[in-house]
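Memo to structure team: turn this sequence into structure tokens by end of day. - J.P.
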Amino acid sequence: MKKELVLRAENLCKTYNGPMPVEVLSDISLDVPRGNALAIMGKSGEGKSTLLHILGTLEKPCSGQLEICGIMAGEDSLSSIRNKHIGFIFQSFHLLEDYSTIDNVLMPAKIARQDTRLGTPAYTRALELLAAVGLSQRTQFLAKLLSGGEKQRVAIARALCNDPELILADEPSGNLDHGNSLAIYEILISLVKKMSKTLIVVTHDLELAKRCDQILVLQDGILTPTIGVSCNY
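Reply from structure team:
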């Protein structure tokens, strides 16, 4: 049985204008089924983060179409798609440093105007997610007191707060040492599989990419499937 598509991109193009226009993405089409983990690799400057931002409706393509969970990404649907269907994980964590761990996890629910008080479904889910990433004992810690590995665990829990279908991760281990990176890989991949989420991750790390169902390489604005990647990105 053919899997339902969570994301479909057709002929996405992106050019940055200037004295010398630079075409970053050229005619990119992509189908991502529900439950799949997809890694996008490529050298620095190839446009991987730009592509991820377009897929996450944070940036607009110059041309092409994007559909997420059956909804066309247009002017009147971008914020709704982002809030309801997408969770983001960034290299630099983007936590609110003076807020508690659980308040950071609950931030997407607060933005969605859910009731996040103690005992509410949103609060209970946040506790469950913190337990799932091994931070049950850190719920009331301020984010600025956490280690880098702990901060990224909080970011993973936050991305899952609103139960989105699609998780987008941009170099999730870029600021971590090898040991913490391996822990993050295990947590991220196991949770998205357990919860039947769809994952698109941009990474330089082949070890993380190999844990995904498919690896694509972005080069010269073109996205290409690859098997047995051995290049050092």
